[in-house]
Amino acid sequence: MEEDVLERRRRVLGENHPDTLTAISGLAGTLYSLGDYESARRMEEDVLERRRRVLGENHPDTLTAISGIASTLRSLGDYESARRMEEDVLERRRRVLGENHPHTLSAISNLASTLRSLGDYESARQMQQDVLERRRRVLGENHPDTLSAISGLAGTLYNLGDYESAQRMEGDVLERRRQMLGEDHPDTLTAVSNLAGTLYSLGDYESARQMQQDVLDRRRRVIGAGHPDTLVSAVRLAMSRAALNQKLAARKIAEEGFQGLRTALGNQHYLTQWARRQLNGIAGSMGGRRQRGNGHRR
Predict the structure, then answer these.
(1) Is residue 98 exposed (0-12), middle (13-18) or buried (19+ Cβ within 10 Å)?
(2) 295 φ, ψ to 5°?
(3) pLDDT digits (tens, 9 = 90+) for 118-170
(4) What is the pLDDT of residue 1?
(5) With a cut of 50, which residues of the chain have pLDDT below it?
(6) Is the dihedral of CA 198, 199, 203, 207 positive or negative?
């Protein structure tokens, strides 16, 4: 449907019309949601180049395009490029929109996520705490952006080793997302997955296994068996099963997840490398050594 809209807008309005660029951007967003990050990146770069030429460097739509590419680059593992772009967007949004504008808060949140991916957990925590306090004040406790801020901060606290605080926050996010979005919404499934990962790190392997199996089944149905998020769920389920001494089944599931990520994202992508490490850890644990830590969170 989006491809049809784009084709019609190109034909009627031309390649550089703002509505055509919006259609390209929308299609890129759909490809990103489907896990096709490279195709999304190429389309987003095309949109950015045209918006810079047509609208100028500081136009809100141009800044949105830069932010979109940065998020895609983060998903592709190019954290330094994402950081540079997000710092640029944040500086301009602060100058043009002010400190408390929702777009400025989103820019802070995006940069914090990238800093977390770069291992700067304390800086990420400070920024996420600031965003959460302001979103609570400006948007309210149950706004989706507020829940995203709680989830992001919980993930950073997990990285800092504060599993108990992360568990409480993730449980709160999950309960509210179930109420507001339903059981099968991608954001709800992310909340279940994150909580399962924290329970794993707390040693509650059976609860983690049950939740991860549920997420895997739902993601296969909702976003497809070949989506990167689905494949990550498979590897995380394998890790819980290995911790429960279900080693043969765990190795098979981890192998399927690794091979799927290699096909979807390539050998060098950070998720493929992560899955390879987990598979090797499970294979090594066949001799009785248990793999610790749940690694990537999604």
Answers:
(1) exposed
(2) 65, -135
(3) 999 999 999 999 999 999 998 999 999 999 999 999 999 999 999 999 999 99
(4) 64
(5) 288-293
(6) negative
Structure tokens at 231: 């494949």
Both tokens of residue 179?
């109420």
Q: 182-298, what's its fold?
A: 1.25.40
Name the residue type at position 113. Answer: S
Tokens representing 183? 């059981």
Tokens 């504060």 belong to: 162
Q: Where does residue 203 rank: exposed (0-12), middle (13-18), buried (19+ CB within 10 A)?
A: exposed
CATH 1.25.40.10 domain extents, the chain: 1-112, 182-298
CATH 1.25.40.10 fits 1-112, yes or no: yes
